[in-house]
Amino acid sequence: MLSFIIKRILSAIPVLFMVAILVFLVLRLAPGDPAVMIAGPNATPDQLQQLRESMGLTRPLLEQLIIWLTNMAHGDMGTSLISGKPATELIMDRFGPTLALSLSTVVLAIVVAIPLGVVAAWQRGKVLDRLVMGLSVLGFSVPVFIIGYVLILVFARILGWFPVQGYQPLSNGFVPFAQRLVLPSVALSFPYIALIARIVRTNVIEVMNEDYIRTARAKGLKESAVLMGHALGNAAVPIITIIGVSIAMLIGGVVVTESVFNIPGLGRLVLESVLARDYTVIQAVILLFSAIYVVINLVVDLLYGVFDPRIRY
Amino acid sequence: MFLPKSASGLLKGALAVAFLGAGSLTAQAETTINAVMNAPLRALDPAISTAYILRNYGYMIYDTLLARDEAGKVQPQMASWTVSDDGKTYTFTLRDGLKWHDGTPVTAADCVASIARWDQVDKTGQVMASLMETMQAVDEKTFTLTFKEPTGIALLALSKPSGIPPFMMQKKVAETPVSTPITSTIGSGPFKFDASAYQPGVKAVFLKNEDYVPRSEPSSGMAGGKVVKVDKVVWTTMPDPMTAMNAMMSGEIDFIEQAPHDLLPLVEGNPDFKLQTFAKQGSQNLVRLNWTQPPFDNLKYREAALEALGQQSMLSAQVGNGKDASTTCAAVFGCSGPYATDYKADDIIKPHPEKSKELLKEAGYDGSPIMLMQATDLASLAPQGPVIAQQLRDGGFKVDVVAMDWASVVARRSSKAPVAEGGWNIFSTTNVLPDVGDPVGFIGTAAGGDSAWFGWPNVPKIEELRAAFARASDTETQVKIAKEIDQLAIDNVVMIPMGEFANINVVSSKLSGMPEAEAPVFWNVTKSE
């Protein structure tokens, strides 16, 4: 097991290296210029050239790449071309809100979707099943920002139960922290609840036809024990896979929710940095996302072994 | 969590006291203005950027030597001045009580260094520098500017309210080369920057500068006493205007600098909010043609474009039909200032597709498409492209619209190459009226060829007139010159004015006293509970 983990971590290094080079080149080849974004619309060509020189953007591309990779190897992710702050500091500032939003969304999605999927499988073809599947189509189809606006209108504007926007760190108290996470987490969890519930339903239905389920029923077990104790456990591997994929999708997909609820997270940092062509920050955040994907995949692989003892590394 | 409103309020109150304790009761006594500004604050050097958010930031923490009052008249701010009999030497004397935020006194040497940094980057400053012979500190509180010939440029430049205003900085900061953005946030203005609370692109906090000594005159425009009447101003960035509007209606924020016009009906008529419009904070639309590439290297094609375009359709697309937040205006320097003119107003304001077709026929137009860059990510610019394209098509042009984000527009517009090699033919943008109304500094009418703004129009006579304007020391002469520049700019189609629109502030009715100035400023503003 340990050697598997070490091998996987080592294999991530070339992946991250390739991602780093790719991101660097794509950004430099894309139109745009951070000097123009700093200097504003009325800057003269001379001003722009001076700024480019001070940012090191007039150096040959290969030299810029080598400097950046060398700094990265020393743990220095660079300095924002726009704000002059270290990229690491900007990421650390924004990591907390995104982590909190992602975790609360995942927990909410799992807690709601798994029972819904199991119930739908149990009631296959009946009203409850059709209702759950109908709602899941709705969850897929309605964009997150629409759900966000509706939640804001009802629960923040009309009922006044939650603030419209913003984020408070946990260090400011649990209540303000939680108050500002409820609506965004609910909005963001809709498509994931729909996705996970459908996968749970399909896989539970599949295992319900297996011999060991018939045996369990023949032993006289209650249907709930059959479902939760036998069916769900044996359907776990594909469910874990889809949860892993959901988390990976979530990390890249929080941009809209962070914008609608004004949460200063990584999604917004990426968007702002792309619009301002803040190369160093974009590179640093994308590398971080890539590393997170690698870790999520590794955790999912390890969880396979927990839920299915036949899988060993 | 899902409780009736009254119970939820009680619960919130109880929990707030439980979590925050007595300290919060003191904190609640603070008066804080929560504002959503036009853009996120991400950089801190107001001298290297013409971005309006940096100008606004500058007015919070820095002060200026001179300032313009509500009527546009130059008034003393940090300094008073005298002019020598020959009109060549301006002597500035700093008023008493001026201190930097670190407690050290403001000196004449600081001001000389600040002007020397600013006049390298600002257009008006550059013109002033070119006319200047010497600038020197005489003593701790006095410095002089001596010019080669009599001129009124010193007062015009040092009171410049927008673009890059001449903010005063500490000498050691002002000596930073203009190629290196400064990181110091020490000013001598009415607010102090709370660096510990600053999150680039997210939040900026300004605290009342208790040591600031305001002028005794009442606040007027950018001039007069800058009396701070709140403890704190917080600028929060909200990328989604709908969220900002919802937060406004929930009482979470007090001020939105630029609310999208299509969201205004949400608060119109509600006594809890005011829709505030200051003429000086309005914007002008302009269309720019690339003089270095066919077909707009030919005057006939430029004239055809001017005839094809009209203002009302674009303004309607930006601010909505039937709104009085926009006005057609043919004057290149704007219609609310002293240089307003109606030269060729009908040609500029109304579309004349038939005239355009005639001009294209005369020019022998072969139907080659022209490339229009459309910025799609900015609310004020996104509607412009489709309107311009359709009007040009109606006028006989074949148009390719290339949609891109604003960053790509500003990158591509710097290219003088043919369209096929990454160049362009037309783009449109907006400028705020204080910048537009400055014949020396306005980029839209600069026509020095390669040294001009993107599009690179080349009309030497305009450059001569701009220099003459800078040298002129009486208003009458300046107005005459400005109107000559206007005519030349229109005759040569240096730019095409596309009308003016108001930038509407949404303000909580709890706020009052905001000065009618060229930029949103927070001194003199009170917040009632």
From TrEMBL, chain A:
InterPro entries, per the entry: BPD_transp_1_N (IPR045621), MetI-like (IPR000515), MetI-like_sf (IPR035906)
Domain ABC transmembrane type-1, chain residue ranges per copy: 95-304
Membrane topology: Multi-pass membrane protein
Residues spanning the membrane: 12-30, 99-122, 134-161, 181-200, 235-261, 281-307
Highest taxon of the lineage: Bacteria
Family: Belongs to the binding-protein-dependent transport system permease family.
Descriptive protein name: ABC transporter permease subunit
Native organism: Pseudooceanicola albus
Automatic annotation (TrEMBL), chain B:
GO molecular function: peptide transmembrane transporter activity
One Pfam family recorded for the sequence: SBP_bac_5
GO cellular component terms given for this protein: ATP-binding cassette (ABC) transporter complex; outer membrane-bounded periplasmic space
Major place of residence: periplasm
Signal peptide: 1-29
Entry's localization field: Periplasm
Gene3D superfamilies: Dipeptide-binding Protein, Domain 1, Dipeptide-binding Protein, Domain 3, Periplasmic binding protein-like II
Protein's GO biological process: peptide transport
Domain of life per record: Bacteria
InterPro entries assigned to the protein according to its UniProt record, in alphabetical order: Peptide/Ni-bd (IPR030678), SBP_5 (IPR039424), SBP_5_CS (IPR023765), SBP_5_dom (IPR000914)
Domain Solute-binding protein family: 74-446
Family: Belongs to the bacterial solute-binding protein 5 family.
PANTHER family assigned to the protein according to its UniProt record, in alphabetical order: D,D-DIPEPTIDE-BINDING PERIPLASMIC PROTEIN DDPA-RELATED (PTHR30290:SF38), PERIPLASMIC BINDING COMPONENT OF ABC TRANSPORTER (PTHR30290)
Protein name: ABC transporter substrate-binding protein
Organism the protein comes from: Pseudooceanicola albus
Phylogenetic classification of the source organism: Bacteria, Pseudomonadati, Pseudomonadota, Alphaproteobacteria, Rhodobacterales
